[in-house]
Every structure is written in C-alpha cells, then in structure tokens.
Amino acid sequence: MSDVIFVGFPYVALALAILVGIYRYRSDTFSYSSFSSQLLENQKLFWGSALWHYSVVLILLAHFIAFLLPPLWGGIVGGSLRFFLESLGLILSLVGFLALGWLMMRRFSTRRIYVVTTRMDWVVVGLLAFQMILGFVVSLSYRWGGEWFVSSTAPWLWSLVTFSPKPEYVTAFPFLIQLHFFTGFLLIALFPFSRLVHLVAFPIGYLWRPYQRVIWNRAPRPGPGFRTS
Amino acid sequence: MDIRAQVSMVFHLDKCIGCHTCSIACKNIWTDRQGTEYMWWNNVETKPGTGYPTQWEDQEKYKGGWERDSRGRLKLKLQGRAGALTNIFYNPSLPTLDDYYEPWTYDYKNLFDAPEGDDQPTARAVSLVTGDFMDTLEAGPNWDDDMGGSEVYAANDPNVLKSLSESEQQSLKTLEQTVFFYLPRICNHCLNPGCVAACPTGAIYKRGEDGIVLISQNRCRAWRMCVSGCPYKKTYFNWSTGKSEKCILCYPRLESGQPPACFHSCVGRIRYIGMVLYDADGIEQAARSPDDGLVDAQRALIKDPYDPEVIAGAKRNGIGDAVITAAQNSPVYKFVKRWGLALPLHPEFRTMPMLFYVPPLLPVIAAIRDGQYETTAGMETAPADETGPNLNTVDKARIPMQYMASLFTAGNVEKIKQVYHKLVAVRMYMRSEQVGDQREEDVQEALRRAEFTPEQCVSVFELTSLPTFEERFVVPPMERERAMDGELPPLDPYSRKAAGGFGFRDAPARRF
Predict the structure, then answer these.
(1) What count of Cα atoms within 13 Å lies in the side-chain half-sphere of residue B468?
(2) Which CATH topology does B360-452 take?
C-alpha cells in the first residue's frame, strides 16, 4: 500500500504534470492564462489575492529550499532561527488558509465571479485550502517538522528523483503528515488540468526584456533600430 | 536614421456628426462575442464629457502612459519592472467593469410568452455577464452622449477640471454657453506604446511593416497590465477567455486593400488613413521632450517622403516602392506635416499616438445671436466685438482654448491657436472666394497670421470637403499582395495556412 501512495502516485502525478503540461502548452497555448477576475470584482480581491499569493509563495519557497538543499535548511532550522521560522510558517499557513477562505467566499457570494468559476476551480481551491489547514495542523501538533524534513522527507523525495524509491523514510509518519504528502501530489497531478498552469507563466523575463517589441513578418531589417527585440 | 512605415490616421472633428456608425461597424465585426460585449474598440465620446471608461484621461487614477522623471528619463507611470511582478496578484490601477458598464440584453422572449394579463408584457434587462435581471441600469454605451453642460458628465471631464478656471467651468454649464463636440477614438497604434511596455509577458507587439499594435492571444496570460498601461484605455480585458483584446486596425481588411471598417463606414467622411515614414531612432528622444515641445517633436519624427535621403533609408529597411508612393500620397502627411493642422490626442501621455485630430472649429465659432443658436454666426463680416469666423474668432472662442490645448497640445495654448488660425484662414479665404462677403484686408491678415497661401487654403478645402474615397484612404498593397506581385521574395502560400487572422483552430473559449 505504501508503495502505491508514496512511490506510484508521486510518479504518476509528476508524469501528468510534466507531460500533459507540455502537451497542453504546445497544443493549446491559448488556455494558459491566470484567468484574472479582477475586472469583474476589485474590492474583495485585494486582501484575498495578495495575502494568499504572498503567503503561499513563501511557504513553497521554504519547502523547495528544504528539498533542494537539506543541509542548508537543516542548519537554519537547527539553529537559533528555529523558533522564528516555525512560527512564521505557522502564521503564513493560517493567513493563506484564511485568504483562501475569503477568496472562496468571494467566488461564492459575488454573482459575477460565481458565473465565471468552473468546477475545476472549486476542486483546486478546495484542495489548496485543505492542504493549507493540514500544514497548519501538522506544524502545530508535531513541532519542529522543519528538522524532520531534512532527515526523512527530503531523502524520500530525492529517492524518487533518483529513481531508487525508498518509501520507508515516510511510512512511519503520522497519518496527517502522510495526508499532507498525498494532497500535495494530488495538486501536482491536477496542475495541467486546471488554471494552476499560470504558475509556470510567471513573467520573470519582464525584469530584463526591452520595453518595446517589434515583430517583422520577414527577417529583421539591418541597422540598430529602436529597442527592437 | 532608421526609416520605418506606419499606417497612420487623421480624424477631422468638424465633420463628425456623432452618429456612431463607426462603433457599430466595428462591434458587428469584432466584439460581439461573450466577454467582449463591453469593449468598444471604436467609440465616440462627447466632449466635454467623462468618456469611456469614466474619466479615462485622469492618469492620477489610472496611471497610464509614460512620464519624465526628475532626470528627464522616460518611465512608465504605472510601475517599474519589479513593481509589475509584485503587483501581479492585484493591479491597483485597473478599471473594473463598473468603470465601463455591465453589458445587458433584454428578455425579448417574455414579449411572446407572457400570460395574458391586464398590462403589456415588458422585456426586462438581463445581464450578459451573470444572466440575472438588472433592475437599474446605471451606465451603458454612450451613456453621456450629447451631455455637454451636464453637471454629472461635462463637469467631471478631467480636462475641464484641470485646465479651466472656476468661472470658466461655471459658464460652460449655463444653457447659452453649453457647447460640445464629438471625439471618436480608436487605438492610436502608438510609436512608443504603453501597453506593449507594460505587458509582463511580452505578448503585445508592434508589427514592423506597418506599425499596427497587436496582442498575441496565445501569449497573453491575463496579467492585465496593458489595460492600465494604455493611457487611452484602448486595451480591454475579456473576462470570458481571460485575454486582453484591442483594436487590430482591421488588418485583414488592410491586407486586402480595404480601409478599416470604421473608416469605410464613416458617414461624415471624417476619417483619413495613409502611410507615413518616420525615424524610429528618434522615438525615445522625442518622447522625452518637455510638455510644450511634444507636438513638434512628434511631427519631426515624421519624415518627408520625397526627400531622397528618406527614400534611400526606407529602401534600406526593405520598404517597397508601393509603400513609399503611398506615403507620398498620404492624406495624413498633408494634414499633420505639410499643413500642421492635425494634432495628437493628449501628447503628454508620451506614447506618440499615430492617430491625429483636426480640432473642431464649429464649437469654437458657434454663438447665440438674437436668441437664435447659430453654428455659423457672423459668417458675414462681423464687428470686432462679435464672435464668428473672423479675425477675433480664436480669442473669443465659445469653448476656452485652454480646454482644446488640454486635449491636443499638452496645454500649449499657442500651439492650438496656430492650428485654429489656419482653420479660420481657410474658412475666411474660401468664403471670400465663394460668397464674397469678407473684407479683403481681413482675409489677407488671416492668411498672414496662419502663414497660409491662398493655394494652400484651396488644397485644405479640397481634401476636407471634396475628397474621394481614394483620396481619403490610401492603403498600399501590404506584404501578402506584394509577395504575390513578385515584388518580394515569394511566400509559400501554405506556410501561413491556419495562421491567418487570429489563427485559432479551436474556439477561443475557456477550456480549463
């Protein structure tokens, strides 16, 4: 059973995310959009969207650092910053959860927003809220998870990456933590089938691209030109 | 010198009758789909008035266009590059649907299906967004149509608020002084577009060959910064597909030799379209000019299409003979450069808009005489203290010159007066020729002040009042036709198969 949950399912989820994600990008680029609803409702969006995105970005960042550089993360959370980081994570997950709740309330109660919400939107937002509250409960009831991550979760994830899966790293975890893993990979599996794809559309290139874009039907003309790209 | 070609436009405001035929032609072709109902790629505003979306000209609110910083550098008023990424979750300067209006239709079915009763059945308004009944319609297309003098609309025109004194604002509200004119607006296809610069993804681009600004529907990711970045609010967000859309200058029509639909259908024949050749190397410098120099700086970018050096530069950049000939015959070049009659709308936004307006003379000369409203009061030689198209017209204008300057010359009153002196001179000269009731010395003085010759007056008159279809619309053969004629290396006709137009094989609708 643990092989299915901690080996098979993660591989399926990642394969879906990558293969279907690429397939969708190539065959249906048009559908890659964040589907902003700000035009339809502006007031309630601010607190929900800003708080949600900033909290989840920070939380994901912490997860990624812990995954990519376990020794560094272990050093940080093992030191004097431990209490600060654990508290910050706790607060962020609560803020993220509340912001999501606010956004769901907005989607449900504002008619203009309700009519542009798809079933998949509800599934995704519900799962995200569930995942947020799981993270909150886990960090509240099983203290110092940041350190466990280094010695158990990170090796498990790396064992998956290196195709030598070792589910025994995480099979002994309490149920809630295992559920947190499962929901995480479920979200990854849903990534290419939902509006979550806007994650990879984050336009970091704006920091350096020239302001103006000129596209020629034919090859560009010689000469330096005005801020052509 | 980097000579490029641009499809450029002139709207002659004296001829606009405010019939909205242009808007309807555009809507029927391009924006009758779900999510685009509220979009008016072409709209006609009443000025003074608040416009569409409400008070779009107020850049303290919407943060569109560019500004010069203290060191004279050009920066987006909206935000810096990092700001675009930190504001991406919530754009603080985005107009919402309520700044436009909630589109609706009517429940026509009820007219047929209603059970028999004491009252006539009605067709209630139904929202095209939610499908709910709308009991109160608070705004709609052209809601402020003809509302010159209105306390709600004209009084809240950002130009009125900015440029006119308290007493001038009051006088515009008195019935006898009420004045308005129409301002048709489409995308300006700017040389330094704010929408292109504001797009985080880089989905918006200017076509090299003709300067048309387009949004790649496949690359747009709904970050909606273009809506804020365009100071003219001519990019719109499609709430149904999650993509921004804007005027495409009917490029499929242009490519087959026809003028855009709004031009073609214009009842007052106010619209002119033609190529101009400009120096792309000078754009940034021109856009950084001080406010009162912006009009001249932009005019200086447009080059004389007969100048051998310009022609050589154009050929170096692959601009074909047909385009150069079209630029030589361009009505836009005549209005903008040769006569200096057409001005850009709000040059202080620094996007270098390539749609130019001949400001209207009629709301300037109209007056009340003997209790009668006369649009041409004092066509006969009038005493110096009366209004009318005489030497004093511009100084006694019915609508303050500061207002017109706020629209067309970034507040430079002398500049707008120059244009009006020319318009008055043409009027007076042609009237003296055809009716013969003008004092000769007045006509001579008007010509001297306008720096116009009688021949120029006749040319302006002819292109204003008597132009043919071919004189108003000088559309050169575009890329595809030129390739077919063998002027360019041949295109494989199949290379663009399924890539013409928007290029969709699936319906452009939300699928996830």
Answers:
(1) 3
(2) nitrate reductase domain fold (1.10.3650)
